[in-house]
Structure formats: structure tokens, C-alpha cells
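call fold(seq) -> C-alpha cells
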Amino acid sequence: MKTVRLLLAMALVLSFIACTPAKKAEQLTGNWQSEDGKETIFLLKGGKVSLVSGPATITSTYKVSGPGKLEISLGMFGNAPLQYALSTEGLAITDTSGKTTKYTRIKEAAPAPASAQAPASAPTPAPAPDKK
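ret:
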């Protein structure tokens, strides 16, 4: 049940990306924290999203489906449609039940969880010294 709630909350946060697809998605990309400080959302370029709530982290994908509308993939559960509003005060995401959660942009936040980041390339090992 908690996982479903987290997925719905993430879907809400992601719904804000739909205002004007390219420009709004660019404005929404970044790190957002709920007003109560319990959730942090990382919206990454390329349609990846991570929601961190306490010890739980959920990573998924999102897409802007229209002005003020966002869809977050919930895997086998389908897509979660959300509505969002972006203002100078922050981001408001509303789920299908009508619950709105407000977020503020985090100015200097920790990087997104490793599961949401592109994999780093492995370092090239140094050549073995010649034994003469």
C-alpha cells in the first residue's frame, strides 16, 4: 500500500512537466522537495524520475501528455495520470483523487539516487609494467 501511495505521489509530481512540453519540461527538470520535507523528487532529462520518501526510493519514467498533464509509468500497473501547476512559489501536483501536494525547488541538493543516473563508465586499468 505504501509503495502504491509513493508511486501515485511520484505521478503527481511528474504531472507538472506537461505545461508546454519542451519549455515546461526544461523548467521542471531538477530536484523538488515536498513542503513537509518527507518526499524529494528528482526529475531528470530524458524522462527519468526518482521519488525518495524516507528509506524508500522509486525510480521510473515520465512523459508530458499535454498542457498541465503528466503521466508516470507504474510498470505493470499502467500509467498514472497527474495534473500540475508551476508557479513562482513552486510546483503543485494533483492526483486523480484530487489530493494536491506542493513542492519547492531545492537550490543545492544531493545528486539523484544512483538508480536514476546514467551508469558511469568503468575506468580503464593502467597497463602492467614491463618486466625486463
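The chain is about 15% helix and 40% strand.
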